Amino acid sequence: MTDKENNKTSDGGGTSHRCNFCGKPASKVKRLFAGYEAFICNDCVTLCHDILVSSPMREEVETTFELAKPAEIKAFLDHYVIGQEEAKRNVAVAVYNHYKRINALAEKKDESSDLADLEKSNILLIGPTGTGKTLIARTLAKFLKVPFSIADATVLTEAGYVGEDVENILVRLYQASNYNQALTERGIIYIDELDKIARTDGNPSITRDVSGEGVQQGLLKILEGTVANIPPKGGRKHPEQSFVPIDTSNILFICGGAFEGLDKIVARRVGKKQVGFDAENLNISEKSPEILDLIEPEDLLQYGLIPEMIGRLPVIAPLRALDKNALFTILTEPKNAITKQYERLFEMEGIKMTFEKEALWEAVAIAERKKTGARALRSIFEKAMLNIMFETPSEDDVEEIIITPGVITGTGEPKIIHKSQKKTA
Question: Which one, of 82, 182, 177, 97, lies nearest residue 139 by Cα?
């Protein structure tokens, strides 16, 4: 019997074709599509479609990376991140070295070359809340045009416990790359709140610590470089699901945290070195803005990071608290400045928006009292602008809106110039 005859089955006195994939006869399916000496039923078409959607084909990605110089990286950061000059320089050099390493490993021909010994330059950003840690990481990914994801270290637990597996942070990056494995393996992951998973003291834990030291241990391998099998859609692993192998060797990890109390640890260490007649008078206390510039690995160890974690974060970039001048600049100069965003929103309505200088300084004063850095500015303006944004779209005669200090404090109204007023003038 030929292949063509195998595809047919007797049905009463006639002949019925079968699906070449599942073997069901035409009488058992809704549709049977004919091809060249082959047939496929509607059920198998649906199944193949689902497989294509859930497991896209791997796209080819260039092995080398278009490398920007450190000065170019910092210049781009300057457009979005105000201040933090030293931190931006540290990050720019680390990112340049990281992707230079990727290019070198991709181009090397001789497997015995010393290039294979180059290690990753993962970055640790330390500074108060609202100083730009997340913004630096996000802006880097935007400039480099690589996938980017943010993970919160506080929700991670050791494998086998309630919470998120450490490997789930790779799942988010895989999803951000549109399920492209090659792009995922050269992306950037920002792990926030790293200080919250520190040990309570510098001594090794003798009890199970599933959300602290245990998470640090779980992060070690993916920070250094390993092949992790991740479930494409996230969640806990189970034996029956398919996995995607992700090599983390070329993924850049940027970790951040406020590390409250670390300044006291540094101040105590620096103070001890000033004892004696020949000691240098550093005149630095825990409240000095430059105290975090003196951080050493031993300070992080005393804070509660395990030695292996410190070793995998070789680049430490401290960020200083923003003063009032920096907060004011944040409101006006960056490409994504809050005032520019509101001006653009009202421009879409055909309305000009103007901010009085005194109103901006009032917002800065409120933000300083909140002590949450630039993060407070967004909430201040959202609250102040709510009524204006609610009422203005319903009014057709508005030409210009001027934001006064009273709008920011909630004690006054904006100056509104109507089109009819300009005509009469």
Answer: 82
Tell me the CA distances in angstroms from 376 to 44, 83, 121, 367, 372, one per residue in order.
55, 17, 32, 5, 6
* 229/59 Cα distance (integer angstroms): 19
Residue type, 31: R
Closest C-alpha among 237, 256, 267 to residue 128: 256
CA 348 to chain CA centroid, Å, is 30
Asked if 18 contacts 8 with a C-beta cutoff of 8 angstroms, the reply is yes
- pLDDT digit string (tens) for the chain, length 425 residues: 344 444 554 444 445 788 988 888 988 899 999 888 889 999 999 888 877 766 555 555 555 667 889 999 999 999 999 989 999 999 999 999 998 888 887 776 545 455 456 778 899 999 988 889 999 999 999 999 999 999 988 888 655 444 567 888 899 999 999 888 889 998 999 999 999 888 765 555 444 454 467 788 888 989 988 898 888 766 555 555 678 899 999 999 999 999 998 989 998 888 765 544 444 545 566 667 778 888 999 999 999 999 999 999 999 999 998 889 999 999 999 988 999 999 999 999 899 999 999 999 999 999 999 888 888 999 999 999 999 999 988 888 889 999 999 999 999 999 999 887 665 55
User: Mind giving me the DSSP string for 296-318?
Assistant: -HHHHHHHT--HHHHHT--EEEE
Alpha helices in 66-212 (DSSP H): 70-78, 85-107, 133-144, 168-176, 181-184
What are the structure tokens assigned to 225, written together? Answer: 């470089």
Token digits for 332? 């006006």
Instruction: Say what the alpha-carbon torsion angle 103, 106, 111, 112 is, to the nearest 10 degrees.
Output: 0
Give the span between the Cα atoms of 358 and 408, in whole angstroms. 10
> Rounded distance, CA 83 to CA 105, Å?
34
- Residue that the structure tokens 């005032």 belong to: 339
Distance between the two ends of the chain, CA-based, in angstroms?
A: 97
Cβ proximity of 184 and 204 under 8 Å? no
Cα-flanking dihedrals φ and ψ of residue 106, to 5°? Answer: -75, -30
What are 148's two structure tokens?
Answer: 């980017």
pTM above 0.70, yes or no: yes
